[in-house]
Write a structure and sequence with these properties.
Cytidine Deaminase, domain 2, 5-stranded mixed beta sheet, about 25% strand, globular, cytidine deaminase activity, metal-binding, Cytidine deaminase, EC 3.5.4.5, zinc ion binding
Length: about 130
């Protein structure tokens, strides 16, 4: 398992998910070479829940500033397998490498799968 995926798994173990029981973790490597991790944090008012991917990306922006770009991102959910949700895909695209080249890794059938954010979100919204 890749180093980023292992770090995402460690982050997932810290998730606050008393309602869904879906413990999700994320690890991001920025173009600056820094690594950030985060987990999902749920709330009884579901709309206030923050996904692991967005939690992690927002930490990276807070640390590196508005020019932060993501080189690679890995996400994992303990006991389940799925790629980032649509909202997270849009946020990843916002901080992606030009042309949507940022690599996103997740598990399918127990194996790491890597796609670019452009492959996962081919028609990202942009201004």
């Amino acid at each position: 398992m890749s180093d980023l995926l292992s770090q995402a798994r460690s982050a997932a173990e810290k998730a606050y998910a008393p309602y869904s029981k879906f413990q999700v973790g994320c690890a991001v490597e920025t173009v600056a070479g820094k690594i950030y991790t985060g987990c999902n944090v749920e709330n009884a008012s579901y709309g206030l829940t923050v996904c692991a991917e967005r939690n992690t990306l927002f930490q990276a922006v807070a640390a590196e500033g508005p020019g932060m770009k993501v080189a690679r991102l890995s996400v994992i959910c303990l006991g389940h397998e799925f790629p980032p949700c649509g909202a997270c895909r849009q946020v990843i695209a916002e901080f992606s490498l030009p042309g949507g080249r940022t690599e996103v890794t997740f598990l399918q059938q127990g194996q790491p799968v890597t796609r670019t954010i452009a492959e996962l979100l081919p028609e990202a919204f942009g201004l």
